[in-house]
């Protein structure tokens, strides 16, 4: 992050002048108000809307602050929408996808980067080619594959495996890992081998500890992707009991009261927003860095 | 980086030598002379490499490569799960073409993409431009603008569905507050699509703003200084320095956004259900309908192939541009 002293569009000299200061602070105030209105107010409206009575939430003109802050919307949502089940489903799906992605993508990236498998170039090319194929356009044939796996004829529908295994086929994360591994000098790995470490041991105690930053980025991408996904889980989980929170929200929101829906929306947002607030510096730095290095 | 180019050729020999060296370095010569042991060594190395690779490779084969091939195959078949597929030539394509929703879906998708470019492109750029000039609360602005991205898309969609409610929604309430005529938003055939673009822009803008901010910080300050000495005003500096300097990133994000918005599904599915009067049915939504409402997987795959071909062209362009080393020239 650059220091504020760096020269940008407007020169520090202009800003230091009286007129510059007035303009600067009015723009600053304007942006604060705009951001509050555009991004924070909708969130406030959601959180507070869930605390209004079913009556008050549909009143026109609406009340800015609930007459009476009540938590019954949240507790009711917790029970009526079966949120514990769906939240747990989402956690299981996201955690499994995360672990499998870390294990298989890391191993494959390590092999492609350092172990020189035969046809490695072709395999890498095939993996990178999937970046070109938009994922959503292939959901139907992917669904048919998951519904009836070739050769073994097993259906993964309504099983978290249907989320976990396709999540491993993430070319973006695999490529991130491979590029990072490419930068680890061979000498270090060779030194470990001379000391008698096997390939797995080298990966575990040398490569992975050095790769902590990229593993963090991949982990966040993996978790967010599963938590936010909608179309794929909508297709593979027809059984309501197995659905993650995103699908259940849409399916169950038809026939419950508005406050309950809103409260469920708030609860569904809490995990990712909390994670974002905790890791915001890393996430924002990751997005910014990834872009400029292209 | 230096090792990358060198390590290609001598690798098999070196790994064979390394592996034998710990036991006794003296035997290196004889081991190299016996072709059988060298071959075995290489086989062992290869099987180890594939041991690491196999899990990821299988998943890619099953869930990326195979479905891509299958989409093409099924698009020429009558396919019902559980029974044998029959070849039907181009029947699926002609049937899909004749569907009145086909034209609507493509029109809507292209309009959506275009509107998302107009609305969702200028706004983040201007926002990043202004944010980059602010010297206070920088971290706060970045967190707040990215907050909607972290809210699950389904939640943003439901939230805006509630805002757009013609009776009790906040959107019309705001219009009434400033004495403007109210709108039907997602309930009017002519306003529904724009309303969805607003939702998508609100929800996804954060990432774009952050990337622009990073790009703006990469512009050398001397350029602005020199331009100012030459008497360039604020607008001229934006036009002749900021925009040319970030042109590459602008183009990249534009392509990525086109690819993403052409696949829009969640907003129309959750907010409008494709209505009113098919005014918000998108291509991906139509694919979903063919597969899960009409049980017509052949038609769904025919549509998928069309979308695939179009989007792959954009993706290929994107990958080509990102590969080229000169970013700012």
Question: Would you kindly provide a written description of the structure presented here, covering whatever features stand out?
Answer:
The complex is a heterodimer of chains A (294) and B (329). Chain A is an all-alpha fold. Helix content of chain A is 72%, strand content 0%. Chain A folds into 2 domains: 12-75, no CATH class; 82-255, MetI-like (MetI-like fold, Orthogonal Bundle), CATH 1.10.3720. By secondary structure, chain B is mainly α. Chain B folds into 2 domains: 2-74, no CATH class; 92-323, MetI-like fold. Helices cover 73% and strands 1% of the residues of chain B. In chain B, strands 1-2 form a two-stranded antiparallel sheet. In chain B, helix 4 packs across helix 16 (297-323). At the A-B interface, helix 2, helix 5, helix 6, helix 7 and helix 8 of A face helix 2, helix 4, helix 6, helix 7 and helix 8 of B.
CATH superfamily of the largest domain in chain A: MetI-like
Order of helices and strands of chain A: HHHHHHHHHHHHHHH
Count of helical regions of chain B: 16
Pair with the biggest interface:
A-B, 118 and 119 residues
Integer tally of domains of chain A: 2
What structural category characterises the helix and strand content of chain A? mainly alpha
Question: Any low-confidence stretches of chain B, pLDDT <50, length ≥5?
Answer: 1-32
The CATH class designation of the largest domain in chain A is Mainly Alpha
Name of the CATH first level of the largest domain in chain B: Mainly Alpha
Largest beta-sheet characterization of chain B: 2 strands, antiparallel
Strand content of chain B: under 5%
Estimate the mean pLDDT confidence of chain B: 84
* CATH architecture annotation name of the largest domain in chain A: Orthogonal Bundle
Task: Provide the CATH topology of the largest domain in chain B.
Answer: MetI-like fold
Q: How would you characterize the largest beta sheet of chain A? A: none
What Rg of chain B, in angstroms, do the CA atoms define? 28 Å
Instruction: Indicate the radius of gyration of chain A in whole angstroms.
Output: 25 Å
User: Based on DSSP secondary structure assignment, what is the total number of beta strands of chain B?
Assistant: 2
Q: What overall form of chain B do the CA principal axes indicate?
A: flat
């Amino acid at each position: 992050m650059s220091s504020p002293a760096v020269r940008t569009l407007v020169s520090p000299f202009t800003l230091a002048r009286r007129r510059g200061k007035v303009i600067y602070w009015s723009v600053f105030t304007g942006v604060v108000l705009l951001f509050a209105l555009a991004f924070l107010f909708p969130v406030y409206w959601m959180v507070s809307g869930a605390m209004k009575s079913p009556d008050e939430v549909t009143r026109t003109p609406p009340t800015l602050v609930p007459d009476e802050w009540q938590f019954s919307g949240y507790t009711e949502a917790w029970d009526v929408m079966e949120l514990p089940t769906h939240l747990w489903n989402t956690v299981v799906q996201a955690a499994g996808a995360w672990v499998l992605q870390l294990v298989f993508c890391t191993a494959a990236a390590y092999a492609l980067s350092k172990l020189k498998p035969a046809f490695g170039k072709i395999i890498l090319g095939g993996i990178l080619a999937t970046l070109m194929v938009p994922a959503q356009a292939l959901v139907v044939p992917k669904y048919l594959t998951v519904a009836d796996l070739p050769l073994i004829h097993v259906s993964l529908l309504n099983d978290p495996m249907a989320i976990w295994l396709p999540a491993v086929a993430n070319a973006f994360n695999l490529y991130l890992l491979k590029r990072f591994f490419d930068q680890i000098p061979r000498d270090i790995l060779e030194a470990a081998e001379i000391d008698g470490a096997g390939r797995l041991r080298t990966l575990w105690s040398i490569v992975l500890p050095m790769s902590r930053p990229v593993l963090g980025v991949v982990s966040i991408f993996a978790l967010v992707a599963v938590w936010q996904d909608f179309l794929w889980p909508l297709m593979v989980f027809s059984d309501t009991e197995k659905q993650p929170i995103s699908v259940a929200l849409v399916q169950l929101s038809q026939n419950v009261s508005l406050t309950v829906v809103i409260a469920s929306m708030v609860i569904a947002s809490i995990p990712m927003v909390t994670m974002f607030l905790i890791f915001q510096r890393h996430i924002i730095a990751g997005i910014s860095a990834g872009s400029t290095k292209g | 980086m230096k090792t990358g180019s060198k390590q290609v050729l001598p690798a098999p020999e070196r790994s064979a030598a390394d592996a034998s060296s710990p036991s006794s370095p003296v035997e290196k010569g004889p081991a190299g002379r016996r072709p059988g042991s060298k071959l075995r060594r290489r086989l062992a190395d290869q099987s180890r490499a594939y041991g690491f690779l196999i899990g990821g490779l299988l998943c890619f084969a099953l869930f990326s490569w195979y479905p891509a091939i299958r989409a093409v195959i099924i698009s020429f078949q009558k396919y019902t799960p559980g029974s044998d597929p029959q070849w039907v030539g181009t029947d699926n394509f002609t049937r899909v073409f004749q569907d009145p929703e086909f034209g609507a879906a493509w029109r809507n998708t292209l309009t959506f993409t275009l509107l998302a470019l107009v609305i969702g492109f200028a706004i983040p750029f201007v926002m990043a431009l202004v944010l980059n000039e602010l010297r206070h609360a920088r971290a706060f602005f970045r967190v707040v603008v990215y907050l909607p991205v972290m809210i699950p898309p389904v939640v943003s969609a439901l939230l805006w569905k509630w805002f757009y409610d013609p009776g009790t929604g906040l959107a019309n309430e705001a219009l009434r507050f400033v004495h403007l005529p109210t709108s039907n938003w997602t309930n009017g055939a002519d306003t529904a699509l724009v309303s969805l673009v607003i939702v998508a822009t609100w929800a996804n803008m954060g990432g774009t703003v952050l990337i622009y901010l990073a790009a703006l910080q990469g512009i050398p300050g001397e350029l602005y200084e020199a331009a100012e000495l030459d008497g360039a005003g604020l607008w001229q500096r934006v036009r002749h320095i900021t925009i040319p300097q970030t042109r590459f990133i602008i183009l990249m994000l534009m392509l990525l956004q086109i690819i993403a918005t052409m696949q829009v599904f969640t907003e129309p599915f959750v907010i409008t259900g494709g209505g009113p009067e098919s005014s918000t049915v998108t291509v991906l939504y139509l694919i979903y309908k063919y597969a899960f409402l009409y049980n017509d997987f052949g038609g769904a795959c025919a549509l998928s192939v069309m979308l695939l071909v179009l989007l792959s062209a954009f993706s290929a362009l994107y990958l080509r541009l990102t590969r080229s080393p000169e970013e700012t020239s």
